[in-house]
């Protein structure tokens, strides 16, 4: 038995090599394939960023056009999967439904049971388009609204908003949403991506890995923190409380404040910089900066009191709310973006695989413990 004990939560442990995402948590740097997130947020699109993550370089104009066309052509949901969306209880959470529907998708995937590199890439196109469709379509169904057919002429971001709302989105909303998708697309070995890689490393198929990743993303310490942040803002408003006093009481009660802190960043999360600006700009454009103002007050207090920075989830809450998106769609929307990174990591794992199987430091009863016959037990 090894005597080396890994730090709790594997903090700081380097568990694999990867060429996809580079983070410097001290300097607040995030890059996809070496390209700074600020450049991508300023100039790229979700399609271009996804190409970069999957193929390791920025596409030429022709490559981007055919990639976008192929992604749009994959906007098809099997009939049986749409049936599932009709049969689950309307109060099922969109995250539960997404996890279950992605699992079901594997049964109907044209490339099953192949997990070659090319089959994985084809499945990644389909999963990326289908996850966005599942989130929008289930939301329509649970609200008793008619399903909106995909519009293959629209970008990934615009088509999602179209299928969700049944109205062509404004350029401002589309660009804001597109930037949010770029910002959430990948983040090295975060919990859901690590989960996906562990599953993929057994040589299980990409749908199994993504189903597991969705489950991991749903927790409030990870992607679920965007919903928890908005629930906090609503609770403060409902109580008519001062935001700073409210979170001060939470800290005094040893509660964590969702949307703050990060395992890797010890400075500003570079994605929060964009989401803070978007939250403010969208609020101003909508003539309602209530959520932004409340968020700013909380951020100032938590920073000065706990030296904790806002993470990606904090300002995405007020940004999505200002875009008119329901709270329980926030984490599914994280998945709408993160599928691009998950797929890149599963493909990278399958391309150069070894089973991931660490050890545990055993703390149980000493070996050999006696087996006491049933009749003799107290
Ligand atoms: C997309 C993403 O996944 S981004 C992260 C989303 N998650 C959240 O926003 C949930 C709130 N944040 C947290 O729980 C944490 O900051 C995590 C899980 C993100 C990372 O934390 P870790 O590196 O594991 O730190 P850990 O949870 O051990 O906390 C270390 C200390 O900081 C405190 N702390 C960390 N985050 C917070 C917070 N949001 N509010 C209050 N205190 C906090 C802890 O209470 C702990 O204090 P202690 O040493 O006095 O016990
Ligand atoms: O990297 C992490 O631990 C969590 C995170 O910010 C992400 O997944 O985007």
Automatic annotation (TrEMBL):
The keyword Disulfide bond does not apply. It catalyses: oxaloacetate + acetyl-CoA + H2O = citrate + CoA + H(+). GO terms for biological process: carbohydrate metabolic process; tricarboxylic acid cycle. Keywords: Acyltransferase, Transferase, Tricarboxylic acid cycle. GO terms for molecular function: citrate synthase activity. Pathway: Carbohydrate metabolism; tricarboxylic acid cycle; isocitrate from oxaloacetate: step 1/2. It comes from the Bacteria. InterPro entries: 2-MeCitrate/Citrate_synth_II (IPR011278), Citrate_synth-like_lrg_a-sub (IPR016142), Citrate_synth-like_sm_a-sub (IPR016143), Citrate_synthase (IPR002020), Citrate_synthase_bac-typ (IPR024176), Citrate_synthase_sf (IPR036969). The active site is at 262, 313. The keyword Repressor does not apply. PANTHER family: CITRATE SYNTHASE, CITRATE SYNTHASE, PEROXISOMAL. This is Citrate synthase.
